[in-house]
Amino acid sequence: MLPLKEKDKAIIQKLLSAGCCARCVLRFCCVTIQAAYRQAQHETLEELKAFITEKESNIVQDSTSQTSTYEHNKSQDAALSETVEDPPRKRAKLVPTQTVQSEPGSAAVVTLRNVESHVCVACLGILQDLCGPDQAVKIAETVKAQNYEFDTMVLSVSLPAQLCVREHSCWLHVKKEVREKGLVLDKDDVIQVKEAFKWVMQGLVTKELGSVAVVSKSPFEVGVEFTHPETESDCHFLAKSCPDCFKPTKNKQSVFTRMAVVKALEKISDARFLQHYPSPPLEPSSSCTPRDIQCLHMSVFIAGRYNKFCRSLPQTPWVIDGERRMESSVEELIAAPILSAFRADGFNFSSSGREDVDVRTLGNGRPFAMELLNPHRSRFSKVETKQLQETINESSDKVRVRDLQIVTREAMNRMKVGEEEKTKTYTALVWTQKAIEKEDITFINDIKDLTLDQKTPLRVLHRRTLAIRQRVIHSMNARYKDSHHFYLGLKTQAGTYIKEFVHGDFGRTKPNLCQLLKTDADILELDVESVDVDWPPPIPE
Ligand code: ZN
Fold first, then answer.
1. 412 CA distance to ligand 1 centroid (A)?
2. Catalytic residues
């Protein structure tokens, strides 16, 4: 039962003659009833044929040649009787342009039969054989094989850009007739191929996957892509008409992106379009090619704090000239168990500042967050997250993680906001050339809010721009160890280079401890005692 009106007949007739498939005809009739697209295309075609050849005045109940479909149409028309004002139209049959036959009825049959086996000029086969149970089984099998954990999915469709050109050409072909439907219909009212494809496929895929809902918004996306090399050159004339729509971009292989083509089609006049492109479009010899089905789950973000207990562990893999210098890293020790639990393809690790390879991070630890790319599993209960934290902690004695939790992408930003204003506390083991006096200890303990000018340290100059940065040491305290060693506690603004403050970095940090104590001094050990960032929120043990 197709919701068609008398005024649709002219559109249907024109499009079928032009080589459009049944579903594309429905699209251009602006049929929004999804069920109409779901019925088998040959049935729709039969109905359309019956509809346009029927003469309203001679609907005969007892005719043996009438199909049940026909009856549907009849009742449909009866229901629409108020809107059907036109008298039975003599031209309500196909008027094939090239094959004018002596008997109009037979001409219609001939042309329509051809339509069935032809590749649609508008959708290039996408709404024909590429849109049905077989394709749904293929999609479902691909999804199942990848073993994702999900209960909703979104089906996304990527179409060749030239489809827009063909759509435009078809639209110009029936523009007059569509407008004559009486409503103020525009090109935007034509149902898009993508939309029709989803209306047909979503239900079928749902059926194949069992309890999964195919919806319009979900973190899990299954992408179907179609290409049609044969008609790729359809777009090319647009580049001459609208050169500024087609500027080469870095990541795109071709300038003829869907966006660019749509933009150019909005600009080009009908007359100019018709000068360069046939309306209706020429018939292709083959259908679109479906590409590999792509599954992608939105990133999941996980955050926590880490301690580092080892003086020979870099934060990130340490590779120089393609060669690894240390066998592991904080990042890898934390990431490995998380990646395998979430079955993710990869990760991005970030933290609130970083420590040097020989620096320990003690206290409550350093906040970190990880983006897990394409996780195949995404839901973890609090208990499961806790177990995951245990797994990380049992896997190595070099790092320890606490407050592990799943967070949102937005929440992650809180780790970076105001990072420079935050304070950090450190303990450094300092060596001095001259023997340490009691006065030195008092002198250090009395220093408050000391502003440093730090020229980018020599050791990081290869990765940071040369600048003088002002940093504040809020307070210090010294604890005597022996005559040439003391422990220096520091509370500083984040981003202060502690090692450079102690040894002076050849005068690049001013003032420095050597200047202050009037002796040569060096730093032997450094520990981060606390990173005062109140994110992520603590999780009670
Ligand atoms: Zn079509």
1. 46
2. 356
Q: Cβ(288)–Cβ(226) under 8 Å?
A: yes
What is the spatial distance between Cα 527 and Cα 211, in angstroms, rounded to a whole number? 53
Q: Are 10 and 85 in contact (CB under 8 A)?
A: no
Domain 299-415 is in which class? alpha beta
Closest CA to 353 of 425, 429, 300: 425
Distance CA 405, CA 370 (A): 10
Q: Which CATH architecture has domain 419-531?
A: 2-Layer Sandwich (3.30)
Q: How far is CA 45 from CA 21, 127, 128, 341, 504, in A?
A: 8, 13, 11, 51, 85
Q: Which token pair is 507?
A: 């005068």
pLDDT, position 463: 87
Query: How far away, in angstroms, is 19 Cα from ligand 1 center?
Result: 8
Residue with tokens 């893999």: 317
Please report where in the chains the tokens 């094939």 appear, as a residue.
96
Expressed in angstroms and rounded, the spacing between residue 21 Cα and the centre of ligand 1 is: 4
- Give the count of beta carbons closer than 10 Å to the beta carbon of residue 372: 26
Residue type, 520: D
- What burial letters (b/e) apply to 134-158, b meaning 16+ CB within 10 Å? ebbeebbeebeeeebebeebbbebe
- Does pLDDT of 112 surpass 70? no
Ligand 1 centroid from CA 167, angstroms: 10
**More confident: 5 or 228:** 228
End-to-end Cα separation, the chain, in angstroms: 63
- The whole-model pTM stands at 0.79
Please give the radius of gyration of the chain, using alpha carbons only, rounded to the nearest integer. 36
| C-alpha of residue 52 to centroid of ligand 1, in Å | 18
| Cβ-contact 428, 450 below 8 angstroms | no
- pLDDT per residue as tens digits for the range 479-492: 999 999 999 999 99
Domain boundaries along the sequence of the chain: 81-105+113-296, 299-415, 419-531
Residue 44 in contact with residue 36, Cβ under 8 Å?
Answer: yes
C-alpha of residue 123 to centroid of ligand 1, in Å: 4
Closest by CA position to 111, among listed 69, 52, 30, 179? 52
Other CB atoms within a 10 A radius of the CB of residue 319 amount to 12
Least confident of 134-148, 406-420, 490-504: 406-420
Sign of the Cα torsion 23, 28, 29, 35 reads positive
